[in-house]
Amino acid sequence: MCSKVDSAGRILKQTPPLAIPDPSVAAPDWKPGSNAIVHYSAWTYITEEEDTMRKQLVAQAQGEGHCFGSHHHDSSQEECASSGMGHSDHKQVYPYRHKVGDSRRFGEPLEVRIGRKFVFQGLEQCLRTLRVKERSMFVLFQGSTEGYVQIEANLRQEYQHKSPKHCSMNCPSSSEGQENPVSAHRCSATLTPSDYAANWDLLSVYSQPLELELELIDFQAPGTFDKGDWELSVEDRWNMMQKKKEEGNSLCSKGLWSDAKSYYEEALQFLNQVSQSSTINVVSLETQAVSKNNEAQSTSSRQPEDFVGDNGSVVRSPLSTQLSALHSNLALVHMKMNPPNHSLVVHHANKCLEQNSNSIKGLCRRAAGYRGLGEWDQARKDLQRAIELELSVSTDKDSKLCGGSAKVLLTELHLVDIEERRTRNLQKKMFGGIFK
After folding, report:
1. Rounded (5°) CA angle 13-223-275
2. CATH topology of domain 232-287+303-431
3. Per residue in 355-413, pLDDT tens?
4. Where do the structural domains in the chain lie, given as residue ranges?
5. 158-165 contact pairs (CB < 8 A, 24+)
């Protein structure tokens, strides 16, 4: 038995389902922006003409030095249609049933956003008929299979290069005109002739019905799941940068330097995406309102790169300030890790100072990196510059020198001299008699 999924009868759903869902579980409310987590398998039928074309394409591609992945199958081992067609004495009987897709091969289910203009609209129409844990078979005819070839070919290509945590059919088509600098899948990409040769079994989808078995693993309402990188707006990326940075700050306060480093690096990736966006409104991001509580706070003792939050509100600093702060924080975690990486301390401190040459934290952390590398003169210059900047924020220089940050910096400067003398004396003892 079959029922129509669409009014034109281009999609049929076989009943009863292959796996019956729990009747006590309510049907999903398929609102735009919902997330469907689904496993799929797909089959089509290969005609003799298409098989001949396939052999020609494969032979031509092999002659050009192309190789094929594990998703290609020997036609002699293909599944035959259940109507009794089969192999006899190794002679192929046409048409034969052939599997052209299986998400389980990729190791993880697909995630499909509902209500977006995706390439494969037929899939969404089928999903809307399912309940969680239901598994059903659909038959899609021409006009409803458009987009499957592009998506399956791209998933195969991605699978050959990496093992994705979640394969995805989330990418919007290019017709939407959305900026997508970090899209994980090129769902709307145009396939080249060599792509067709490498995916010969997909050619028949253009002329034959597509049998699609779907199992709805889970359903997530809008706002209950994390967005994929590809669908984040510039403002989303900015907010994600701030969230990752705050999490890194929290881990730093607990001395979890390695974990903090990971969050700061993620924050830096989001910030770089914001800075490279062609649609960014920097002025808007830099001048977002600060809460009244934050506006009332004194900022005289705050470093330019400080990130302040109160009652859920956050100071939105300029891009350069955030870049400076993140690199300064990365310099700190590399300095604190065991063992410290002094070269990376200097690298990130340099990046910090490129954005803010008056960053006292950047200067102090670069000085620490130079000390670890034995570059004493460079360490002294940075500490002396940091002391000058620290004293410049107050007219009461005598009190500053007697206590507070300036005194700490003077102590650090004195330690550089001590460490240099100790190192040089040790070197003399170790190598002084070599050339006598």
Report:
1. 115
2. 1.25.40
3. 999 899 999 999 999 988 989 899 989 998 998 888 887 554 444 444 457 778 888 88
4. 2-220, 232-287+303-431
5. 158/184, 158/185, 159/69, 159/71, 159/105, 159/106, 160/69, 163/106, 163/107, 164/106, 164/108, 165/108
How much is the CA Rg of the chain, to the nearest whole Å? Answer: 31
Secondary structure (3-state) at 379: helix
pLDDT at 190 over 90: no
Q: What does the H/E/C string look like for 70-135?
A: CCCCCHHHCCCCCCCCCCECCECCCCEEEEEEEHHHHCCCEEEECCCCECCHHHHHHHCCCCCCCE
* Cβ–Cβ under 8 Å, residues 416 and 387: no
Nearest to 357 by CA among 368, 347, 346, 349: 349
Whether 244 and 270 have beta carbons less than 8 Å apart is answered as yes
Nearest to 170 by CA among 225, 240, 98: 225
Residue 120 identity (one-letter amino acid): F
Burial of 335 (0-12, 13-18, 19+ CB in 10 A): buried
**What per-residue confidence (pLDDT) applies to 92?**
82
Percent of the chain clearing pLDDT 90 (strictly above)? 35
pLDDT value, residue 227 = 76
Of 102, 118, 105, nearest to 150 by C-alpha is 118
Task: Report the pLDDT value the prediction gives residue 426, as an integer from 0 to 100.
Answer: 80
Evaluate whether the domain defined by 2-220 bears CATH number 3.40.50.150. no
Q: The whole model's pTM is what? A: 0.54
Q: CA 426, CA 159: separation in Å to the nearest integer?
A: 56
DSSP secondary structure string for all residues of 5-30:
SSTTSSEEEESS-SBPPPTTSPPP--
Structure tokens at 48: 């003799």
d(CA 408, CA 427): 28
pLDDT in tens, 273-323: 888 775 555 445 554 533 333 443 444 333 434 443 334 333 445 688 899
Both tokens of residue 246?
């705050």
Structure tokens at 434: 């070599």
Helices (H), 297-356: 319-336, 342-355
- The token pair at 208 is 């034959």
The model's pLDDT over 134-187, given as tens digits with 9 standing for 90+, comes to: 999 999 998 899 989 988 988 888 887 654 444 444 444 333 333 332 233 333
The tokens describing 98, both together, are: 């052939």
